[in-house]
Amino acid sequence: MTAREDEEFLNLGIQYYAAARSAVLAGLLPVFGNLYHHAIEAFLKARLSQKFTLKLLKDEKQGWGHKLPLLWNSFKAEFPGTTNSTIQLSASNSLRNCATLTR
Fold first, then answer.
1. pTM of the predicted protein model
2. Dihedral of CA 66/67/69/74: which sign?
3. Which of 16, 26, 80, 92 satisfies CB 3.0 to 4.6 Å to 39 for a cystine?
4. CB burial readout 54-84, b (16+ within 10 A) else e
5. Domain ranges of the chain
6. Cis amide bond preceding 80, omega within 30
């Protein structure tokens, strides 16, 4: 992978994060959860793109795709000192599917 790819993921992550923060302030439920999901995904992929192929990062069937728990576990393997207390990502992707927040 090139430095350009990880920079692109970081750029996307920052944009999604800023949009998510704005959505929270505007009260846009459940849109903000989806935006935060994409921000976290892009930040994780920024680091992982330095070691793994874009095909693996994008492929839903044989790679990680949008699966935050798989991305997070791979990120933790790269940074063993990272703990689950840093961030909680459930297998149900509840951050992305924020319907439970509106109930």
1. 0.77
2. negative
3. 16
4. eeebeeeeebbeebbeebbebbbeeeeeeee
5. 3-102
6. no
